[in-house]
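Reviewers of the previous submission asked for a worked example of the structure-prediction workflow described in the proposal, so we include one complete record here. The input consisted solely of the amino acid sequence. No template or homolog information was supplied to the procedure at any stage.
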Amino acid sequence: MSLAAGLAAYLMISLSDMEVSVQETQPPTEARAKELYAAGRYFEAAVAYEGLWNSDSLPKYLFNAAMAHELSGREGKAYLLLKKYLSLPKLQPAEIEKASARLDALKLRASPLQIQVDPASPVEGMTLKKSGVSGDADLVIDSDSLALCASKNPGTFEFYLEPGTWTIVVKANGYKALGQDVAIREGERPQVLLRLVQDRPAVIPLATSFGPAAAVTAGIRIKVRGVSGEQEYTVPGSGNLTLELPVGKWNLQALAPGFKPVQVELVVDGSSQTHAITMEAVSDPSSRTNGFRDAFGKGLQGGGGLLLGVGAGLTVASVINQPFFEDFRYPCGDSYCLKSNALPRQGVALALRESGVLLATFGATTLVYGTILRHRNVWKTWKPQLAVGVSLVVIGGVTSIVAHEMSGGLSTILRESFPDISRERFRGLHAADTIGFALVGTGLALSVWGPVSTFFAQRGWNSNRLQVMPSISPTRFALGLRMSF
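From that input alone, the workflow returned the following structure tokens.
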């Protein structure tokens, strides 16, 4: 028995094994394919099985088409179909094993061809044409089949073909169709390197004008990016520039010192176009900062003056309600007597004075800070301000606590009917408490306005975004703060 006859007998057995089910009545097209195969008309049988595969997508049709192509002497086509067959999902282990064995046997008989394409990324398809064979036998390889034949190296593909002279045609987006002939002989392993040449499509002129004149004088640089690369231009002194771009979508970016960047999407469709691009000047950062300082400083002046007035009023009220030393210890026969309203008046006076001093010093410091801020960038030294403010708060708080809680302090005066205290000590305690709250008010203002003004100034907020609105009337006072984000 000859080798061809033995191979035909083996493949006939394989065809029967690949049947999923046997029906008494088969479709005419499948019957026709089997009839052609049995008659030895393998290429026609392969075409029939590929037609069945395209209509029904049953794996057996693809496998049978590969076997028929192999028998017709077209190992290259059989190789591609077997690779595609093995990539199908849900194949049974026995089917995979049989197809893999056929693929390994085919590789031993056919000649390998390695094709490397540079660059690799744009390759969309490939056609392998064998000289002296009709066009029906061309290997038209789409992107999916190329992926199955790709090796580990990017842009490298491996095929197994029958001997002969082949023409390789590569299709790549944005590149010219590239063809090259290669002779394949038995026992050789040819390697082909194909370098793609970028296709330069016809360019379309786009008349573009730029403004204002100040931007043109400053110097406008243009970057145009698209599918075929990036181009750079410099706008001439006339402000008019003609761009020559191929058909497609492009992104134009205009840059000029002192002006905001401009981006424009261009769609070149083959028709002449005219574009006018106007650039917007960037406002002076220092003017924005000065505007903020002035607006914020005015707000602090108004709010600080308001708090200073309220605090001064409370302080005056505390002086009016402050009992004298004699109200606590005045001679009454052989002992001392205490006026009935001395302790309540002392508690009210102490609360009014402490609140008034705290508000007055906070307001006075705020008023001074706002005045200085309108003329100098004091917010740039916010860290030292915060440190000084915290120190003053701590010192003032400790001073007031000592004045209250020390032996014979203000708390003692409020608790005992006849405190054992001299006139000088009585005055000293009140003075220490007043100084303590004054330090706390001043320290709080420094601790607050330094970081707050810096926070707003660094974000470039102007008077339209931040407004401090103090208001006062004979019946009420208010401090409004409006911020927009």
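Confidence is low (pLDDT under 50) at residues 1-5, 9-13, 15-26, 460-468. We consider this example representative of the routine output the project will generate in years two and three.
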